Amino acid sequence: MNTAFDFSKFEQGRTVYIRPVKVADLPEDMRQHAGGSEELYAVHASDGERLALVKERNLAFILARQNDMSPVTVH
User: Where in the chain are the domains?
Assistant: First the structure.
C-alpha cells in the first residue's frame, strides 16, 4: 500500500476520479495490506485505470493535487 507511483506518464488528462472501494471486493493480496480497514479510496485516471488506493478520502484528494491533477468524486 506504500508503493511509489509515477503519475507523470498520465499527461493526456489531468482529471482523476476518487471513489470508495470495499476492501472485501479487492483481491486477497491487496486485502492483506488494508490494515483492518473496510473501505479504501481509489484514484482512477479518466480511462478508468486505477492509479492508487489510499485509506482516507482526504488523502486521495491530496495525492491527486500534489501530482497536479484535478480530483472529482464518483459514486
Answer: 14-73
